[in-house]
Amino acid sequence: MTITLRAVVSGVAATALALSTAVSAETLRWANVGDSLTFDPHAQNHGQTHTISHQVYDSLIYSDHTGAQTAGLATDWYILDDDPEVWEFQLREGVTFHEGQSLTADDVVFSFERALQPNSDMRPLINTIVEIWAEDDYTVRMRTDGPNPLLANNLTNLFIMSREWAEANNVTEVQDYSGGEENYAVRNANGTGPYRLVSREADVRTEMELFEDFWGMDQYPLEVSRIVFTPIQSGSTRAAAILSGEIDFLQDPPVQDVNRLQAANDIVVRNAPQNRSIFFGMDQGRSELRTSNIQGENPFADRRVRQAMDLAIDRNAIQRIVMRGQSAPAGMIAPSFVNGYEEELDRVTGTNTARARELMAEAGYEDGFSVTMTCTNDRYIEDEGICQAVTGMLGQIGVQVNLNARPNSIHFAELQNGELDFYLLGWGVPTLDSHYVFDFLLETKTDNSGAWNFTGWSNEEFDALSRQLPTETDLERRNELIAQAWRIAQEEVVYLPIHHQVLNWAMRSDVVMDVHPEDQPMIKYLTFE
Amino acid sequence: MTTEQTAGDQPLRPSLWRRILDSDLLYSFLRKPVVIVSFVLTVIIVLAAVLAPWIAPHTPFDPASLNLMNGFTPPFSANEFTGDTFILGTDSQGRDVFSAILYGARISLLVGFSAVAFAMILGVGLGLLAGYKGGWVDSLIMRVADVQLSFPAILVALMIFGVMRGVIPPQQQDQMAIYVLILAIGLSDWVQYARTVRSSTMAEKNKEYVQAARLFSVPAHRILLKHILPNVTGPILVIATIGLALAIILESTLSFLGVGVPATQPSLGTLIRIGQDYLFSGEWWITIFPGLTLLVLALSVNLLGDWLRDALNPKLR
Amino acid sequence: MLAMLIRRLIQSIVVMLVVAFIAFSLFQFVGDPINNMVGQEASAQERAELRERLGLNDPIPIQFMRFVGNAAQGNFGISYRMARPVSAVIAERLPATLELAMISAFFALSMGIGLGVYTALKRSGVLSNFIMTVSLIGVSLPTFLIGILLIYIFAVELRWLPSFGRGQVVRISDWWTTGLLTPSGRASLILPAITLGLFQLTLIMRLVRAEMLEVLRTDYIKFARARGLAQRSIHFHHALKNTLLPVITITGLQLGTIIAFAIITETVFQWPGVGLLFINAIRFVDVPMMSAYLVLIALVFVVINLIVDVLYFVVDPRLRATKH
């Protein structure tokens, strides 16, 4: 056998052993628990997938670390004065793809049409678009199904591909499983973003390098010339990897290791509130719970029971012990930077076990009841720990919880099939507007609304308020509607909010990068001290 | 007893208990301090586990009795919020580690003993059958053993869990988890017994005393039970002892992979898995104490098994 | 010999069919695959159409036949999670696992035989007893805990060795990558190989010791001694040689176990092999990947069993004599 040493694929620990500090200042070794699922930009609506794609692809608009909508491939965007159903986007000129094609309006039209295909996971975000066309080479218009002032909010993860490239590589369609063929776009990418995909081995290693013809060469620091991304699943191994200097940037240090990382003198941990709130949902619409000893009636349907549970949960203890202080106890399912947030609504319900027991008795459950709580154990920060803690707290008012914690793939499948009585969920608000929460979590579940409202809660007054929001153009009036709607939901204790997550990013002490509220590091902003 | 007196020349070897009295087992036991210590430690742990509800200071499996604010209390020191003190500290949920170990050992031992018993009955039965009958019965059983061996314990368990997830309703999965574990570990371990018993049976069945018994029309099951089984008791006991240690470790490994007993009713293995997350952050007691208990238990049982093997093997004396 | 080989081959095929059926049943048990393939908003009609195209409406036996047919050609479909052909992904990952398994088997074998011989010859020595006891600690601690402790000591505290991954890898051919040719690749192998091999090491050591002790007591060795042969020659030429047969068998059989148990080691060390792939497949309910892995592991076992059987036959003349 002839051994041909070709294509030396460099490995994770190539420059790893921290004994040598002569790590190239421009290479960033970055780790996270999970990998991007695919480079096909429209195949998955999934956080880490978008995060990695943001380095390679551009969207028309993106949200920066302050949460502000920032110009990406679009330089300007607005609703036409004479037609509230039409949005117009002015495109940046002189943008080239990694493989040399020039960006035109046609590519944008193509990408949106692709994202609207049945196999696309991005379709729900833009399915209000009924028509999209190029006005000229650098102007794109979209017509929505009724006025949609918030459309731009939904485009921050919608990436633009080259039509020419897609046609040449036969990837005009999002992955079709029945074909039995691999889609070229899964492991190859041709974006307009700051970094070019160099090599990709799913779950193992993804390498990107600076794209010299990037349109923003003068606008961003772009101090990193090469990115090596490695997913590491085990929390202890992740912490070990940054402690031993094998990686430069750890996107998700385990909460219990944050202190130790902070104490290490060659590591800094930066944090910021994340755009994600953690809460419990209860199926209150059914006549009888699936997993309870109470037959013939649904304890969750009684508001007093929900109130009692709300009073039984000690959110401050969860914050202090389970989260090691790395969370903000919550009273509402929207973090502070979301339009419609009110401190008063977010105030944490004080723990009052005695009052909670009274309420249980008033509702006729002085002997309590049993129910199964379903949780993820690999999705949110300390998710299983939170569930265990709440199990204990509810036990004190007679609600005997059987805890069922499992991987999120199974959790979400069952949740979406509407099979769960009592479940943990986390929710982010990418649009930074309360309507997103109402639309998905609180409106009555129909084909067009309440897509993630698995509580069975349905309130006509609330629905009426929420449904005025998309077309209400008077902002003051709109905010008034939002406030009213929130009050109804809070009054009814539809959900049991726990906290808003706090993001911690651990990095080598000379790395400077602001924490992004949606956990989307954009390496183009990163600088070295 | 001399080396020449190996099993082959000896018609109708005496039973195990007979040999314990005759063959210096007790003598050999008393002469080895390590073995005595192992035995004592095993007995202490088993007793502590059995008596857990009476001797444990807390009831760690009752979530309602836990105070979350007691979480992460170090051993021998008072909690800064509640002032409570715990001998071996508390875990992330405020659970008393000492009590959790006692209750956890109970579950680990229950799973271990049951799995071993299950594997033993299955393996010995099938091994005797295969070895005695031979022919297609033997082929069939040994092929099944091969199929089973194609799936090491972990895979068998993962598959059984996958199937159970589809079959058992979610609210009963937690209660069933322990039986699924026993089934999974037991099923993964029977082949050893079967192979050992089969080969011994095959060797024994052609010996004069069995042939003689056959001539006198002694029924097959009597020959198997009365004449062949006693001869393989030694090896079986050794496999079972080591199997017990293996089963306890396998249980912890499965819970590391996320398919073990629920975290609200942790076994030793689950306690270690939960605790290992806190090893780097300084809360070493959460994983070290259950780890030590598991180590001491498994080590003692292994040492006993080891000694037993040597002591029961006449060729080594 | 040939008849035996053919019989064993047929048996192996039956075994593989049974395993294939179990792997195939996973598709029936674990959820509706269609949900994994289409976007959340796909209509019922689109789902039905895809179902028909994938042949999920055919009778079960026909689906099974198709599964076996495809599997025999190495086609296990497209991974739900990675959107790539399962066989291609497994082929990419297999070298990492095989390399780790080989190295740890080598480690276990060399250390195991060495220590086994030593402890057998110095049966009541202090060091022997110490080794025997310490070796038990290795099998009395769960693998994942050993791995984590090793990482803690050698990667975090001492910073001698890497804590995860394969290090720098060299591509030797289209289907093989190795970490053995680079310093970082070799360094990365050490901790996972020890973690994975420790259990087998103990097993082999004890086996060698027990076999040696038995052989040393046989007349054969007594005669050798009586003939005045050198101790060294007796121990290594006569005694050890006779203990190797069972050792080969066990090690061979254990190789498959090592590959399966690599799941844990690979999870702890983020080793990019098939074990990690399998655990991720379970987490994401990636059924094509799960079933392919099961079939693959079974195949490895069956092949190893076959080889061990044949070796046995070749090595042990008595077996040949009695079987005929």
Automatic annotation (TrEMBL), chain A:
Keyword Isomerase: no
Keywords: Signal, Transport
Transmembrane domains' residue ranges: none
One of the record's GO molecular function terms: peptide transmembrane transporter activity
Ranges for domain Solute-binding protein family: 71-446
One GO CC annotation: ATP-binding cassette (ABC) transporter complex
Gene3D superfamilies documented for this protein: Dipeptide-binding Protein, Domain 1, Dipeptide-binding Protein, Domain 3, Periplasmic binding protein-like II
One BP term from GO: peptide transport
Signal sequence interval, chain numbering: 1-25
SUPFAM superfamilies reported for this sequence: Periplasmic binding protein-like II
Similarity field: Belongs to the bacterial solute-binding protein 5 family.
Protein name: ABC transporter substrate-binding protein
TrEMBL record, chain B:
Keyword Iron set for record: no
One GO BP annotation of this record: transmembrane transport
GO cellular component: plasma membrane
Domain of life, source organism: Bacteria
Annotated localization: Cell membrane
Leader sequence residues: none
Domain called ABC transmembrane type-1: residue spans: 105-305
Key words, A-Z: Cell membrane, Membrane, Transmembrane, Transmembrane helix, Transport
Keyword Transmembrane helix annotated: yes
Transmembrane segments: 34-56, 107-132, 144-164, 176-193, 228-250, 284-308
Gene3D superfamilies per the UniProt record, alphabetical: MetI-like
Topological category with respect to the lipid bilayer: Multi-pass membrane protein
Family to which the UniProt record says this protein belongs: Belongs to the binding-protein-dependent transport system permease family.
Record-given protein name: ABC transporter permease
The organism's taxonomic lineage, starting at the top: Bacteria, Pseudomonadati, Pseudomonadota, Gammaproteobacteria, Oceanospirillales
From TrEMBL, chain C:
Ranges annotated as spanning the membrane: 12-30, 100-121, 133-155, 189-208, 244-264, 292-315
PROSITE patterns linked: ABC_TM1
Subcellular location per the Swiss-Prot or TrEMBL entry: Cell membrane
InterPro entries on file: BPD_transp_1_N, MetI-like, MetI-like_sf
GO biological process, one term: transmembrane transport
A GO CC annotation given for this chain: plasma membrane
Residue ranges occupied by any ABC transmembrane type-1 domain in the UniProt entry: 94-312
Pfam families: BPD_transp_1, BPD_transp_1_N
Gene3D superfamilies in UniProt: MetI-like
Topology relative to the membrane: Multi-pass membrane protein
Keywords attached to this entry: Cell membrane, Membrane, Transmembrane, Transmembrane helix, Transport
The UniProt record lists the keyword Membrane: yes
Stored SUPFAM superfamilies: MetI-like
Keyword Glycosyltransferase: no
UniProt similarity note: Belongs to the binding-protein-dependent transport system permease family.
Protein name (Swiss-Prot/TrEMBL): ABC transporter permease
Organism: Natronospirillum operosum
